[in-house]
Design a protein that fits this description.
The protein contains 13 helices and twelve strands. By secondary structure, the chain is of the alpha/beta class. It has two domains: about 200 residues, Alpha-Beta Complex (inorganic pyrophosphatase (n-terminal core)), CATH 3.90.1640; about 120 residues, Roll (Diaminopimelate Epimerase, Chain A, domain 1), CATH 3.10.310. The strands form two sheets. The chain has a six-stranded parallel sheet, with helices on both faces. Helix 2 runs parallel beside helix 5, helix 6 packs antiparallel against helix 7 and helix 6 packs across helix 8.
Length: about 350
């Protein structure tokens, strides 16, 4: 990361700052946004965090989460707040389309723009860009950003709790997308007083009964295994959403259970949303799921974790996914396609 004198001057003098992250925010989006907020407030900045849509309930414990403004709920307040800002910080996304209608407003507002992200192919949307696809998470980059600004002492337990949340969620409790820096950061945060086991307990052991019943339904009734392609998928229909009263965050992590099958290298979760069909892909090893999402389904992400969407029906989307598997048979199995 390179830190210009202009950037240091910008952030060391109180500004009116908006921190934005993507629709359907996950632990990394929430953690990085709140960590940045608590860091900047130590310099006297006026800071608001805004998301296009709601975040999962398991992250409500994070300090400052109750102050987050949600465009879908607080649209007019969001418009008023954004119109007063002179600094915009984009975290865990790199295209205006990822913040939907909020992006249509923000891209036409005056002000300095800072982007910190770990996804591929960033759009030219910021004055200061910190984009590292090799990073485990945006929270890893936030830690390095604060340290690079010469402000390591400002990573207090409040900032640290938020950073640790993004580290642990985007790495699946340090099972993937890790690097040596991740463990150094985690160790340093614990030394600074971050309650690591308590955070993991709050995030991963806060399920409702219906979530376990939904998981059972997915594994027993909605799972398909395609051994010839070392692939497994789970799908959910609108009727499933109604039957289990599925809300935001209820399906988070379901796709990862497919990767526990020894032979599976590619896992897919395909489910109906109100206006689209959403796909979440995960993989093991060097198989690149973001290439599938980008090429075939209007999406993207990381090599081992990516997402996309389709305007076709659920049935048609599932069939399209199956139809492209022969193109990747050699990469998945070491054998030539059909």
């Amino acid at each position: 990361m390179e830190f210009s004198s202009d950037l240091r001057q910008l952030l060391h003098i109180p500004q009116n700052v908006a921190i934005l992250s993507h629709r359907n925010p996950d632990g990394d989006a929430i953690g990085s946004s709140l960590a940045m907020r608590h860091y900047l407030e130590q310099y006297g900045h006026t800071v608001h965090v805004l998301f296009p849509s709601e975040y999962p309930e398991e992250f409500e414990f994070l300090p400052g989460a109750e102050d987050i403004l949600i465009w879908d709920i607080h649209t007019e307040e969001c418009k008023q707040v954004l119109s007063r800002k002179n600094v915009f910080i984009f975290l865990d996304f790199n295209a205006y389309s990822r913040i939907d209608r909020m992006g249509d407003l923000v891209k036409n507002l005056p002000g300095a723009r800072i982007l910190i992200d770990h996804h591929l192919y960033p759009e030219p949307m910021a004055d200061y860009v910190f984009s590292e696809p090799a990073a485990s998470s945006t929270c890893e980059l936030i830690y390095r950003f604060i340290s690079g600004m010469g402000d390591s002492q400002k990573i207090n337990p409040t900032v640290g709790i938020c950073i640790y949340t993004g580290l642990v969620t985007d790495t699946g409790s340090f099972k993937h997308a890790t690097n040596s820096m991740v463990f150094r950061i985690a160790a340093d945060l614990i030394d600074r007083g971050v309650p690591d086991t308590e955070i993991q307990d709050r995030i991963f052991n806060s399920q409702k009964e219906k979530n376990l019943r939904l998981l059972g339904h997915c594994l027993a009734n909605r799972m398909e295994y395609l051994p010839e392609y070392r692939t497994a998928l789970i799908w959910l229909s609108r009727k499933d959403y109604e039957a289990f009263e599925i809300q935001r965050g209820d399906t988070e992590g379901i796709v990862n259970y497919l990767l526990t099958i020894r032979e599976v290298k590619l896992a897919a979760f395909i489910h109906n949303q109100p206006t689209i069909v959403k796909l979440s892909l995960r993989s093991k090893g060097d198989f690149d799921v973001q290439e599938i999402c980008r090429t075939h389904f209007n999406g993207g992400g990381h090599k081992n974790a990516a997402g996309a969407y389709s305007h076709d029906s659920l049935k048609a989307t599932i069939q399209k996914f199956k139809d492209i598997l022969p193109l990747y048979k050699k990469a998945l199995t070491g054998q030539n396609g059909k």
